[in-house]
Specification:
Pfam family, one: Mg_trans_NIPA
Helix content: over 70%
GO cellular component, one term: early endosome
Organism: Escallonia rubra
Largest sheet: none
Function: Acts as a Mg(2+) transporter. Can also transport other divalent cations such as Fe(2+), Sr(2+), Ba(2+), Mn(2+) and Co(2+) but to a much less extent than Mg(2+).
Protein name: Probable magnesium transporter
């Protein structure tokens, strides 16, 4: 299938987004290390010196640029193409960390990078064409069709059941609860972001969409997502301790919306990152593609072979993502475990602060009598 001009713009923007976001993690980490060296107090244990570090702010600006590029990419290309490409941020971050931060990239991690690239190429080659949209009212008609309303109703109902029934009972023991909430809400958020982005694109092209109430409705949905997130973060007094440690695993997934940041962070704070990130990636990407296929009819007119190829490409990217996260966790664990008995995956995740260094006071707490005897 030919690669349309709109798809090419969306692909380039998604690729730039991955490059900027992946690089921002390394820049911010360098800034955190520099600030810790000057002040003697790291961000992970309550230090605020990084707020005065220009390098850290440069990393934040780089990340914002990447997120804006990701937002605009949805206005040009279908979610089937843009969303899976978010995994490329992991490759950029892993490669830069290997050369700049001297963090060893495991051989299986290299294989994971190759698999992500190969899967992304398959997806790009077989991606559907972006359906031409002339007005926000056309998007509104897509959003109010029976099939998509059924999806929205089902998603909201499942979220309510997970939040009020399963979360209090098994939210901290079953990784699928928080990741399920995040994935369901994230898929709806992406549809709103795509609708708003398309409206703004048409407005900049000379077709003013700001006069239609539908544009402001989609704007309200996106703004509600952001305000909800900020409200949760303001209530969570403990979030900053581990925010820098988990923001990488949240943003590299390329979802284009931050409504679910707090819930993802809760999942990452409770479970092993190497488990949460791949599960969240596959659930979020699958539901986003499903929502886009229902609302925007992305697969209409495509051959069965192309659709199967896209699914296979997504599976390859997923496998590469799992390899990268698993080997990252293995490298971090082996860097301080040595020949001692392994700790639980959850404990190994909590042993690291935002700049990837071992938290000394947590290490002391985890040094049980048996571990101390083995050390002696």
């Amino acid at each position: 299938m030919g690669f349309s001009r709109e798809n090419l713009k969306g692909f380039v923007l998604a690729l730039m987004s991955s490059l900027f976001i992946g690089a921002s993690f390394i820049i911010k980490k360098k800034g955190l290390k520099r600030a810790a060296a000057v002040s003697g107090v790291r961000a992970g244990v309550g230090g605020y010196a990084y707020l005065l570090e220009p390098l850290w702010w440069f990393g934040m600006i780089t990340m914002v640029v990447g997120e804006v590029a990701n937002f605009v990419a949805y206005a040009f290309a279908p979610a089937v193409l843009v969303t899976p490409l978010g995994a490329l941020s992991i490759i950029v971050s892993a490669v830069l960390a290997h050369f700049i931060l001297k963090e060893k990239l495991h051989q299986l991690g290299i294989l994971g990078c190759v698999m992500c690239i190969a899967g992304s190429v398959i997806i790009v080659i077989h991606a559907p064409q972006e359906r031409p949209i002339t007005s926000v009212q056309e998007i509104w008609n897509m959003a109010t069709q029976t099939a998509f309303l059924l999806y929205v109703g089902s998603a909201v109902l499942l979220v309510l059941v997970l939040v009020f029934h399963f979360a209090p009972q098994c939210g901290h023991t079953n990784v699928l609860v928080f990741t399920g909430i995040c994935s369901l809400m994230g898929s709806l958020s992406v549809m709103s972001v795509k609708a708003l982005g398309t409206s703004l694109k048409l407005t900049f092209e000379g077709k003013n969409q700001l006069i239609y109430p539908e544009t402001w409705f989609f704007t309200f949905i996106v703004a509600t997502c952001v305000i909800t997130q900020m409200n949760y973060l303001n209530k969570a007094t403990w979030w900053r301790k581990w925010f820098e440690a988990v923001i990488t695993d949240v943003l590299v997934l390329g979802h284009g919306s931050h409504l679910v940041l707090f819930l993802v962070c809760m999942a990452l704070d409770t479970f092993n990152t190497a488990v949460v990130s791949p599960i969240y990636y596959v659930m979020f990407t699958t539901l986003t593609i499903l929502a886009s296929v229902i609302m925007f009819k992305d697969w209409d007119g495509q051959s069965v072979g192309s659709i199967i190829s896209e699914i296979c490409g997504f599976i390859v990217v997923l496998s590469g993502t799992i390899l990268l996260h698993v080997t990252k966790d293995f490298e971090r664990s082996s860097s301080f475990r040595g020949n001692y008995a392994p700790l639980s995956p959850t404990l190994s995740t909590h042993l690291y602060s935002g700049n990837g260094e071992l938290l000394k006071h947590e290490e002391d707490e985890l040094c049980t009598e048996e571990a101390c005897l083995r050390t002696q």
